[in-house]
UniProtKB/TrEMBL annotation:
EC identifiers of the protein: 2.1.1.222, 2.1.1.64
Family: Belongs to the methyltransferase superfamily. UbiG/COQ3 family.
GO MF term list: 2-polyprenyl-6-hydroxyphenol methylase activity; 3-demethylubiquinol 3-O-methyltransferase activity; polyprenyldihydroxybenzoate methyltransferase activity
Name of the protein in question: Ubiquinone biosynthesis O-methyltransferase
Biological pathway: Cofactor biosynthesis; ubiquinone biosynthesis
Organism per entry: Leeia aquatica
Lineage: Bacteria, Pseudomonadati, Pseudomonadota, Betaproteobacteria, Neisseriales
Function field: O-methyltransferase that catalyzes the 2 O-methylation steps in the ubiquinone biosynthetic pathway.
Sorted UniProt keywords: Methyltransferase, S-adenosyl-L-methionine, Transferase, Ubiquinone biosynthesis
Keyword Transferase applies: yes
Length: 235
């Protein structure tokens, strides 16, 4: 797959590359990812089970979720297009002692090379950063084995999510650097569900994630107005 046809926004890659050295600092710009990681892991583990499963983390970044899944007994492959993030992810394995197989490759190309090879495919906090999210959804579906699970998480698109995920998180509370998110790329659950069904996936569960500013913690909730997780199964 040529660079010209990659489903990637160079500005997004550059943005995360500049922050790559901070991936494993739990008090850095990546603090929200560290905070929600136990929730994401529990959601995946409860539905699909991670022990002894072959899992791929699409858009793995510095490996926070990848290592968490490996720690729970999964055999994990992580893919991303940000080389600097992957370098940090590989270096952190020396410290953690976990095993993750990292590759700098587009999910579309990975789907061509490893179709139907994974028990679970995980794509968290990535869809809102790519030009063509439907292409990512199709590729994730292709990577899953028959009856395998596919997990997504992203941000809803509505006035509440703009208020909380952009204005509050980036400009008021400072949870994320300004400009982290492009509101126009947020996806409504109905839109993502349609992409998933078009890719041959069955919807299993829709779950929200909410931030409580006074307790400074995240929790799983039935409210999907801002952050949400979508679990699917390949037909």
């Amino acid at each position: 797959m040529s660079t010209a046809t990659l489903n990637v926004d160079p500005q997004e890659i550059d943005k995360f590359s500049q922050l790559a050295h901070k991936w494993w600092d739990p008090n850095s710009e990546f603090k929200p990812l560290h905070d929600i990681n136990p929730l994401r892991l529990d959601f995946i583990d409860r539905i699909a089970g991670l022990a002894d499963q072959c899992v791929i983390d699409v858009g793995c970044g510095g490996g926070i979720l990848s290592e968490g899944m490996a720690r729970r007994g999964a055999t994990v492959t992580g893919i991303d297009l940000a080389e600097k993030s992957l370098k940090v992810a590989r270096l952190h394995l020396l410290e953690s002692g976990q095993k993750v197989d990292y590759h700098c490759i587009a999910v579309e190309q990975m789907a061509e090379e490893a179709a139907g090879q994974f028990d679970s495919v995980v794509c968290m906090e990535m869809l809102e950063h790519v030009p063509d999210p439907a292409s990512v959804v199709r590729s994730c579906a292709a990577l899953a084995k028959p009856d395998g699970y596919v997990f997504f998480s992203t941000l809803n698109r509505n006035p509440v999510s703009y208020l909380k995920a952009v204005l509050a998180a980036e400009y008021v509370l400072g949870l994320l650097p300004r400009g982290t998110h492009d509101y126009g790329r947020f996806l409504k659950p109905s839109e993502l569900s349609r992409m998933a069904r078009d890719a041959g996936l069955q919807i299993v569960q829709l779950q929200g994630m909410d931030y409580q500013p006074f307790g400074q913690r995240y929790q799983l909730t039935d409210d999907v107005s801002v952050n949400y997780l979508l679990a699917c199964r390949k037909a």
